[in-house]
Amino acid sequence: MKRVDLHLHTTHSDGSYAPAELIRYCKLKHLDCVAVTDHDTMSSFGECQEEAHTQGIELVPGVEISAQFAPGTLHVLGYFVSSEHHELKYVLEDVQRARRERNPKIVQKLNEAGIEITLAEVIQETYGQTEIPPGKQLGRPHFANVLVTKGVVRDQEEAFCKYLAKGKSAYVDKRRVRKEEAIRLIHEAGGVASLAHPVQMRLSAEDLEKEVDYLVNCGLQGIEVYSSCHRPEDIKLYLKLAKRFRLVATGGSDFHGANKPDVEIGCMGKGVHLGYEVIEALKSRILKNR
Ligand code: AMP
Ligand code: ZN
Ligand code: FE
Ligand code: FE
Fold it and tell me: What is the count of structural domains for the chain?
């Protein structure tokens, strides 16, 4: 049976594996078909594609867009999207620009909290050079690492709990796309939009069903049923929603390497592995969308 994982991150967002390195790791772990879904960017696609070709792995062009939402988080996965689609590219670049503008604000807030830290330090510690490399980003986990190195906190978790988490003194919100826009952009870029890790939306089963109904009307065609953060009862509920709204039941580990050490690549719950049927279902949607 072919093995599939449709939710992976590289160093182009908050994963710890560089693009080619990640693809080689997929090969090592016997995955046959994968999607790299960095947050709000497709800048790792070229490098992943090249290595996937070398390794004989099928690579699905992917992205994970962070949308505006409360009470939890709403991420929309895009599969088989064209990284060259004008509007998608423009919006993703705009999100990246806003992210760069956010970094000095985080530094300022940390300074105000009495911590001596500069942006230059964070960039140097993260990338070993003075500039953020093209296509790469800086995020809260990188700031957390520097706080650990400086001995301000013991570990990443404490850095978030004390300073970086939502509501804490150094928290700065980031630009997020509207959920309707995220789905529309993915659709217009030739892809299939799937609702990432619904458990993180923090909705009751009833509210989730209403939300999914709305998102389907916006063009949603998939739901991430299988994820490393889903319990068996979550999976059962999301499978029911997939059937009810005729959504493709996608799945992925949400692998971030050392930045989420408990998550293993290819694993989306105890004993759950995803097969190639999901790829066929996605491809058939794309043919119908045309
Ligand atoms: P950013 O995109 O810069 O806001 O950072 C988001 C990333 O921070 C997430 O993908 C997580 O990896 C990490 N993160 C968010 N909240 C926490 C937390 N409470 N503890 C540890 N890591 C977190
Ligand atoms: Zn992430
Ligand atoms: Fe996510
Ligand atoms: Fe993710």
Answer: 2
